[in-house]
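Collaborator request, handled under Task 6.
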Amino acid sequence: MTAEAGKVDPHLWMRRRLVLADDDPKILDMVGSLLGSHYDIVGRASDGQTLVDTVLRLSPDVAVVDISMPRLSGIEATRTIRASGGIVKIVILSVYDDSAYVEAAFDAGAHGYVLKLAAENELIPAIEAVATNGSYLSIGLR
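Structure tokens returned to the collaborator:
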């Protein structure tokens, strides 16, 4: 509770809910460590199909998704989530800085694209931008 008129500060009780997806457990741990103090990590996936299932089951606010994963790529998983009517915002986190990947990600329905090398500085601003109905493109791709 805040001291002002007994109002509850929503930031004290409501944190954004995230699902993380990457086939590399070290990357999942690194991203989880980076984001865990700011957000509730409600699920993790190591392949695209598990990502789709997890997102549809848990309905997180944002999914942070690698492109290169088994079973379904991050782009295919994004497309599948969009086709199912999922309203989760999707931020692609990738090593690929090629414009073809960026375009394919946004065409599939991603809301943001962050380079893994810039994750420490850009992932939280990207999540906040997409969570408030904006979009985000990594500074190195602009």
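The cover message to the collaborator said: "Residues 119-131 form the longest helix (13 residues). The radius of gyration is 15 Å. Please let us know whether this matches your experimental observations."
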